[in-house]
## 1
Amino acid sequence: MKKVLTVLLCSMLSLALFAGGSGESATAESAADNGKTKLEFWTWLSSDAAIDAYNQMQDDVEIVKVQMSHADINAKLAIALQAGTGAPDIYQTTQRYYPQFRDSGHMYDMTSVVSDIMDGYPDSLKDLVTYNGQIAGLTPDVSPSVMFYRADIFEEYGIEIETFNDLIEAAKILKEDGIYMLPIFNPAGSWGANAVGMLLGSRGGNYFTADGKVIHDNKDLEIVLEFLNTMVAEGYGESLTFFTPEFWGEFKAGKIAAWIMNTAEAANLKTNAPELSGKWKIMPTPRWDDKEQALSGYWGGTVIAVTDQSENPEAAADFVKWLCGSVEGQVWAGKTWSAVPAYEPAYSDPFYQEGDPYFSGDNIYDMILDTTPFHYFDWASVEMIIGEKLDLMFAGQLTPQEAARAIEDTIAAETGR
Amino acid sequence: MKVHIDSRRIAPYLFLLPFLIFFAIFRLWPIIWSFLISFFQLDDGDISGFIGMSNYITIFHDPTFIKAIWNTLYFVVVYNVIMIILAIMLAVFCNSSIIGGKKAYRAVFFSPIAMSLPVVAVVFDLIFARNIGFITSLLGMFGIEYNYRIFASMTGAMWAVILMRVWRGSGYYCAYFLAGLTSIPEELYESAMIDGANAFQQFRKITLPLLKPMLIFVIIMSTILSFQLFDEPWILTQGGPANSTLTLQMYLYQTSFLKQDFSKGAAVSYVMTLLMLAASIVSVSRQKESSSGRK
């Protein structure tokens, strides 16, 4: 009897352990307590209000947000897609990293659900989400650049900015009082490639041609690097690791007078420096002195897609369509993470005509200039290469011209482009 | 035919079975699988072609990987030497009979380990901050201007990371050394004092030799953990400036998860494993050699 009991106990233990991870249990979890089917949505953005608004309209499904950094989303998603299990129903990632997931072939084909709204997007965004003729995601936002500036500081010093040279001239005056004109990413990290890319875009430039070839002898890149190097070498810009406590601390201490950045960071600024409400204003990205037209640079924006592991892909696609491809969803995106709509009909909504008290009543959407297409290829490698070369330039080991050539040559060698 | 089952013989194995099954699936199999895929090309998660040592050859031709190895070894050696010396000093201090309030000191020394790594990184970010930081304020009180941004310095950034780790780790390992010190019989010190040995001689001839087993344990544990350095430099520098704080763990992360090259990432992880193994073996054998030399 004792023998039988022992064997039974061990067998039960083993079975119990395995039963804990069974698929049956996971399926049971997907039904919410309220009887609705839960759809998991990975994002790093504070989009709770938009999700709540959608959930309140739904009888059968509930979107459950799982918040993590976009680096974590990319890492976990890469493993889950390769392993064939563990991916969410819906995920959000940056436009610059999205192509690697799109091209994996593991995205749900949303064509039948969203084909009627695709005319609302510019061609470049339609191309971005199309894979083998199928629509494999939608863009909720774009991230063009503007210039946030401290109205009180600009007024006190009588600063008026139209061009990038104006920025340098004004920075000379501010430096005397220990104020920096701009924060500069130093060490560059992954921010470097994106910030340089944004400034390149404000010149109409690129790292790559549209068909993915590295642009050699890139004069636009040289000019951008020359500007950044001047800001660091002359002490006009403050070297900071972006989004650390030191970074926000310098803003709050009134050490930073302006910030050329993508529109999405307006929300970040408001969250991390609420005490500066009413002191900021917004203007369009300055014009480069050798250019006749000022442009907004491009930081990338985001994409939301449904994975082929979703058990309810149509319901998931309906949510993506609402958030990215309806005026109502786009207004919620604007309210929650200051999204600049990718879906052009959304601009007709009065919400996008309103000013923001934090920015002294300025309307950020009025400050966006024309953009030219910016091309992303092998972005993980590009970020690492550019980050290293920028650091060497800031350390005085490369001139801006040498850094530009080193960036072009290394990207070409490493990616074969 | 009747099969006779000896329950007393089988029972232990049956009780171990759940652990063994889980160990095999979640520990052993990933180790074997990752070793295998380092020699194969992966296509959408499936093995698609044998590529031999190609991954290993590629990474050793990559100057960034060599830089990551150098940075990691530099960190491991410098951090461990400073941290262990400091931890022993703290332990001796806390164990001293002439010090009052030992429990309070122990609690204070141990407390940094209770803080999560990202929090520690944030705290040190504000300590070192050039314009608004603790060092700036402190020196400012004496009229000294601090105009050095350590995380933007190719020579200083790694030292900032080392300081952070030493601050966090020395109190923790001090607890191990304290446990070792309490096991040393008081009579040894008394007889040494009778023989005229001063405090330093007692430390060198009694304390250190008898702490040796604990020292070996701490070196191995600390070495393995310090090879896995990731959070602090990732938060504060992302491996910069110019890869000066890039560690093997960060290179592994970049390769596997950012570039999504899991096959090459597996090769990196095995190089890391070999380095950790070698460092541990060297540490232990050197300790054993010095122990046997004294006998």
## 2
Amino acid sequence: MSNSSSRERNLHRQLANMKHSLFDQGYLDEQFIQLEELQDEENPNFVEEVVSLYYWDSVRLIQNIEQALEQNPIDFAKLDNHMHQFKGSSCSIGAKKLKKECTQFEKYCKTGNGEGCKRTFQQVKKEYATLKKKLERYFQFARQVGCVEKACRPK
Amino acid sequence: MMSKNNLALGQKFSVLIVDDDKIIRRIHKMLLTKFEFESHAVENGKEAVDLYISGKNFDLILMDMEMAVMDGPKATRELRSMGINNVIVGVTSRGSTSEKQAFTEAGLDYCVEKPLSSETITSLLKELAKKY
């Protein structure tokens, strides 16, 4: 019994370390913690649901930006609008690095710098994909920890 | 026993979330549920106005600024011109003071930044308690 509870503790520690690392490396900010605080017994997977919803919904926002960047000439007002939507969604899940890249994009957009926008958008997509992988790993591990917890619970 | 959020009539405080971002709608709905509010969400200002035209009423409207079809300032102006006196709180991620001011002048009671947090809701509640 002591083995399983120490195993549980180890897994929890590993999960906590994973999370701290996401914050320490600047991938996530306080907003993610706000989402976690909304999680409860009735909605134990709320954060994962919101993040999944974000990745599902943001595909079209990214497509909108890509299409707008392909136009010649670029309609910067439209582009700014699309990025504003994408940035807003990204902020709502606490995506800190992604938010920074979006802000940079907005600056280029406001000055009508198409090349700057295109370059920055590559960074945006890179951060978007990196965060997705990291969060998928985190939630997958969190679910494993949850399963072990249930298995270890005394009958 | 009445919770702090119940009106004198013993009903739950009702909130209309008006936002084109489905992630924000989901988060705000959950946040409001934590505060024991009842909430309904729509995607743009026109849907909000149509709800009121159909006879629906809410104690509080959380109105996003930028939305397709009908944006926050326009919807706010329409609701006020219809004689709607409910508290309308503008919710925006745009930092510009002039944009916030223009939105406020459309008829808002307050303007806050999104995404909302528990702290924002708590401060709003204190303000709303004065009004109600």
## 3
Amino acid sequence: MKVVFVGNPNVGKTTLINKLSGGNLKVGNWAGTTLERLEASLKLNGKELKLIDLPGVYSLEGEGEAERVCREFLNSGEYDLIVNVLDSTQLERDLYLTTQLLYLKKPIVLVLNMIDVAKSRGIKINDRLLSEILGLPVLKVSGRTGYNLKELLNLILKPPRRGRFFNLEGEENKFRFVERIYREVVKEERNLEGEALDRVFLNPFLGLFSFTLLLLLSFKIIVALSTPLIDFLSWLFTDYLTYYTNWGFLRAILSGVGFALSFIPIIFLTTLFISLLEMSGIIPRLAYLFDSFMHRLGIHGSSVLPMLLAFGCNVPAILSAKIVGGKRERLITVLMIPFVSCSARFVVFSSLSVLFFERPEIVLTSLYLLGIGFALLTGFLLNKIWKGKLEPFFMEIPPYRIPDLKLSLRLSLYHTKNFLKFAGSVIFLISLILYSLMEIPNGRVEDSLLRRLGEGLTFLFEPIGLDDWRITTALIPALLTRETIPGTLGVLFSQGERPKPRGLKDELINTLKGMAFNLVSFKAPLESSITKEVRKALSPKKALSFMLFILLYTSCLATITTMAKLLGWKVSLLFFLYSFILGYGVSFTYYNLIP
Amino acid sequence: MTLKEAELGEELRVVKVEPTLKRFKALGLREGKRVVVLQRLGRNLLIRVGRGKYAIDVRLAKLIKVKR
């Protein structure tokens, strides 16, 4: 059975599908989170249900990409039931689409989502009367709290009902019809919820200040909680377990995969924070605040949305640039995105900044802001090269919503699992290859092929302070993705004799103490033997130079490929070259010219 | 007068929306509806229509006729 979810943008269709199916489709609190047809499936009472998520539209008549995708799918008739999702706080607006869906003469279930929010705002909906008027089953639900979701599944499985047919030719008749229904079924008290928050987040100074503060505070919490855990896992894999392992290749795998795995706490917490932020409604407000400024770069404030998504991962951010109208604006936005630090870079930055700096959260925030600065510079340059006229700006500002912690946790776990898979496959393979290259020709690292390869690259990277062959070697697999850097460093710095590690119990107690201590004051250097070796190989200045290079140089195959799909290989490879020159130039300037 | 000329906080009634802005009608910005200008920021106006808030370029606001 195929069930298609249709509704206005940002009414919670994807959240409902995720809750019903246990899926992990992307959610966010702004119009345009879903840009193409997505699917999730579940089995219920022996029946296979396919839940189809369509992009949100206000009307089926528009000329945009979302309207085209919706219209084409709905007119194809390749589904059994329409679940029309409506925002209970915006019923008058959302019912207009319902009047158009009635014309399709397909079975429809009307779902009044966010009923908990409507209640808290003093909105009362007579669902029985609405059902009688339209001749359709109507159900009040809340995707966030899970209210009535079981009933929704039961309703989907019941014999389908088509709605009454109303002769509503022309949009004016449809509007009048909707207004009449709304007057009959909805009673509301005036409630201006969120106004106090908007006084802060929609104020050009307070808004930007609050967002920066929020970012800094979040980094502080993420780094403080995860550093002792990273410390413990890194010690467990690279010191404790390897000490009791005699096989060289197993030690290489434990060091490579294990060192990469030790960053799982930071990946989990970062994706959780980003997911909560995406659901809150703050991000689109930034897009509005930045619009006038972004005009100077020849783009709209709406380009801020994909750029902020890039904090999680650059690939979906580039894909979401489809919401930016106009070919020129889209190109500028896509070419700005790779400078925004993703979670992969966060892994590298956090691992090095906690090792070399006393206030890692300041270093992390500065690197993030610097990345944004270079994104803006790139936009400015592109706007000078490719001049054009901007279409007028229009954007819906969504209401604030309390993020769904359960769903955020599930999405973060999903991303963490993906990283685990990545570590178990790609990093495992890279560790194996690195170990083999270290063994060729005579089993001595000093004479190995890998060392010769790394030293060959050292010639290129010495001017930016990267004179250790192990550091430059880490840049080779990083071409695939930057997440491989800690794993590679793990393999390369794990060579040599190890002292007997401390006891497991003592280390665990230290970790818990560290987590509590870090929230108040930050000073928790990593203590595994690999991190000690890394500290010997680099100085704070060299580490920062390395991080600057990693920040600006687009060392990610997935980003380059996605960019090529959207803009063509020529633009993508030119950008790759530009990012390399920029990264190298900035690191060189910093390392050689700044005392 | 047009929406662009409206004063902050003033509640107005939409009199005419230019045909080029047809797409806004579906989200409530249509003849007979009440609209309030909440903020002016750069080239945009922040408006409230019903329970929804929207940011709209003044070039578009010029195409919407309103009255007190």
